[in-house]
Design brief:
Blueprint (H helix, E strand, L loop, with lengths): L1 H21 L7 E7 L10 E2 L7 E2 L2 E13 L6 E8 L7 E6 L16 E4 L4 E7 L2 E11 L14 E7 L7
Length: about 170
């Protein structure tokens, strides 16, 4: 008799765990990412001061590359969080992502959203959104580059993740 109670108890516990795991999953959503300008060239104009022999790169270099995201098929009041991360270790200068909030309607994002996020191997929260967004523009910036160490070609492979419930508030 105790064995039957144990099995029923185990089924109840597994069902409870399954419900907790699926609670933050967004239903019927799609995300599409289009990269504008697949590459960026860092050159003598990015030195500080520009075109000066012996100068190092400027501390922050705005890249011409942009990501255009479409987050669709969500209910109008559904909160979500968009995160981004590298798929492999890069090293060297840090890549940052920044959302162009000025291009969004105020009802589509939470004012507590992060302004920017460093891109690393762990997922970094980028924006808390609400409902579907057709054109979410993300710009990129290189920080801390050095002529002595950041001279090779490098590929940035990014993984975008959409989760339900919104991002934690930015500090």
């Amino acid at each position: 008799m105790d064995r039957l109670n144990f099995r029923n108890s185990m089924k109840t516990n597994l069902l409870f765990v399954f419900i907790l795991l699926t609670f933050n999953v967004l239903k019927s959503q799609s995300i599409n990412v289009i990269m504008r300008s697949d590459y960026a060239v860092i050159e003598e104009n990015h030195l500080d001061p520009p075109r000066t022999a012996g100068a190092d790169y400027a501390q922050n270099i705005a890249l011409p590359t942009q990501a255009l995201l479409a987050i669709e098929e969500l209910e109008p009041e559904t909160p979500w969080c968009l995160s981004v991360r590298h798929t492999h270790s890069i090293g060297g200068a840090a890549l940052y992502a920044r959302v162009r909030y000025d291009l969004l309607r105020p009802e589509n994002w939470d004012p507590g959203s992060p302004v920017e996020a460093p891109i690393s191997l762990s997922a970094e929260h980028l924006i808390s959104g609400i409902g579907s967004i057709r054109e979410l523009v993300v710009e990129f910036e290189l920080r801390g580059a050095s002529v002595a160490t950041d001279y090779d070609l490098r590929h940035e492979n990014l993984l975008w993740t959409l989760t339900g419930g919104g991002c934690p508030a930015a500090p």
